Amino acid sequence: MRRYVLRVLSLAAALGLWQTLTSLNVDLWLRFSQFPTVTDVARAFAARLSGPDYWTDLTDSLTRILTGFLLAAVLGVATGVLVARSRLAEDLLGPLLEVIRPIPAIALVPVAILLFPSNEQGIVFITCAAAFFPVLVSTRHAVRDLAPTWEEAVRTMGGGRWRILGSVVLPGALPGVFGGLSVGIGVSWICVISAEMISGQYGVGYRTWQDYTVVDYPGVFVGMVTIGVLGWVTSTAVELLGRRLTRWLPRTAYAPDARPPRPARSVRSVRSAKPAPAAPGAVPGGPASEEARDEHLV
Amino acid sequence: MSTSSESVLSASPAAVATGAPVRGTRLTLSGARLGRPGAPALDGVDLDIAPGEILTVVGPSGCGKSTLLRTLAGLLPPLAGEITQDGHPLNGPSADRALVFQEDALLPWRTLRANIELPLAIRGVPRAQRREQAQAWLERVGLGTQARQLPHRVSGGQRQRVQLARALAARPRAVLMDEPFGALDAQTRAGMQDLLVEVLHGTGATVVFVTHDVDEALFLGDRVALLGAGGLVAVRDVPRPRERGAHDDPARLALRRDVLTSLGT
User: Does one domain contain both B196 and B88?
Assistant: First the structure.
């Protein structure tokens, strides 16, 4: 609970600072006089929410990013596993992938325009290209790092290559794959917004750029807030799914400040019932609740 | 290979009736050179492991004990010579020969029961039966109530018990064990040895058990094979194997002295 309060407080403080600086038109070295205030932005946001374009933009951007990202996830995992498991695939695909990888996905806009009949497909292509490489690279690493005994165990049970793929390689690589997916969803947003700004029709990025060209600054901020919230929601979704699928990982070591606050909290709750010694404090926060807590604090 | 073990299974009632309940397998190495290409660990190995016997293998560390076991499992092809199972050349791993590792060979994302179900699933046992058999095995190794725990939630000794159950669940004809109790404390280890003897009883499986603990080798083995200096040094019969009271048997003590001498300790 206390952590949620802290999180809300931090956001509120940032907004408060923004409001103060802009409403007082602070003009030191940074100039806030042209900057829209929080209330300006909130008013513009409310107006947008009631209009039809906002929701069209939202669904367009979401469709593009989800299509591109899912394609990248499937292709990235498949290619990563292939390159990690097969020397032939590594020799054939490795050099090609290494040459393409350093090219920023947004620099592929000309390629997308040349290749694809419509802008829509071009944007999905760029989004996909952006997320593909993080997924590929982390899958490849994760597959190569698998403990050899797992595979040997399944082989001596008579398991063939598909069994090894399904029972050892994919589940074992999953934590690493999700690392790549988390990075991938982030770069996907960067690229979908940039691509929309360059060549989109509708979409949050397109709208934000339009507002800028007609000097509607509160509108620009509405776009930025929208992108921020969407990005946060989608990456949280990826993170939650990842945690759910990799629940088998010994997770206790991760919770960074799990130790100091927890005994204090549970001791307090115990004390109200009965004056217990210090020891039972550890009992209420057993493994089950620990996991549950990890689940919703992303 | 799993088909051959199944046919033996289905034939076993008849075999019992005719007084031939042997379902262990004979493993034979002749003139074998073992190891990785360019780095042979053992050379000129001639060894005949009889169906249903427990052969323990001791030797100083790095002498090729694990190499021998991996070769018998089919994970490592021999560099020269011949290795046969019941007279047929051995090529590649098979469900016939289960391998038990020193540690961390359970799949960490599967519960204890799901780990034991895996070899059964590979053999094509239907789901309901699989669950039932896995549960029965868990009871047998004393972990019936922990079926749904993940491996990292239980102790090292418990994990090894599950590995033992997993290896035996698919009814292999040979069990190859690579220092399975090596990472356990002495107390747990003695308990595991008793458990091993108990669960092996009636399976008829051939066992090759690698260890660096001479007392463990002499307790478990019908015969003990000594490795060293790039080859097989000797194979000795063990008097009164698997009897806890036999540790001060004069014949056993003499053998123990011999083994320790040949290991150079």
Answer: yes
Note whether residue B14 is domain-resident.
Answer: no
Q: Are B212 and B245 members of one domain? A: yes
Q: Which residues of B touch A155 (CB under 8 A)?
A: 75, 93
Angle between helices A38-50 and A52-85 in degrees, nearest 10: 90
Is residue B133 one of the residues assigned to a domain? yes
A159 CB neighbours in chain B (<8 A) are 122
CA–CA separation, B26 vs B22, rounded Å?
Answer: 10
- pLDDT band at A268; cut points 50, 70, 90: very low
Report which of A174, A15, A200 is spatially closest to residue B110, judged by C-alpha positions: A174
pTM of whole model > 0.80? no
Res. B4 pLDDT band, cuts 50 70 90? very low
Q: How far from A204 is each of A41, A211, A232, CA to CA, in Å?
A: 16, 11, 15
Using the CB atoms, write b or e for B145-158: b if 16+ within 10 Å: ebbeebbeebeebb
Residues of A with CB under 8 A from a CB of B: 147, 149-150, 152-159, 163, 167-168, 171-172, 174, 246, 248-250, 287
Report the percentage of chain A scoring pLDDT > 90: 28
Question: Are B120 and B58 within one domain?
Answer: no
- Examine the predicted complex and report whether its ipTM is higher than 0.85: no
Cα angle A272, A278, A281 (rounded to 5 degrees) comes to: 65
What one-letter code names the amino acid at A242? G
Interval A160-192: pLDDT, tens: 889 999 999 999 999 999 999 999 999 999 988
**Any domain includes B229:** yes
Per the model's pLDDT, the better-predicted residue between A79 and A38 turns out to be A79
Provide the number of CB pairs (under 8 Å) joining chain A to chain B: 66
Our CA angle for A137, A142, A146, nearest 5°, is 150
Residue B231 β-bridge partners: B228
* Residues facing B208 on adjacent strands: B55, B176
Structural domain including B151 reads: 106-171
**Residue B101 domain-assigned?**
no
Identify from A156, A164, A251 which residue to disrupt to test chain B contact, counting B C-beta atoms within 10 A and taking the largest count: A156
What the block records as the tokens of A62 is 């979401």
* pLDDT tens digits along A208-235: 888 888 888 888 888 888 899 898 999 9
- The number of distinct structural domains making up chain B is 2
What is the Cα–Cα distance from A293 to A278, expressed in whole angstroms?
22
User: Are residues B74 and B110 located together in one domain of the fold?
Assistant: no
Q: 3-state class of B39 per DSSP?
A: strand
Q: Same structural domain for residues B142 and B249?
A: no
Reported in sequence order, the residue ranges of chain A that DSSP labels E, i.e. its strands, are none
Distance between CA atoms of residues B250 and A99, nearest Å: 72
What is the rounded CA–CA span in Å between residue B56 and residue B68? 12
Helices and strands counted in chain B (H then E): 8, 10
The closest of B168, B217, B228, B169 to B189, measured between CA atoms, is B217
Residues 16-75 of chain B with CB under 8 A from chain A are 70, 73-75
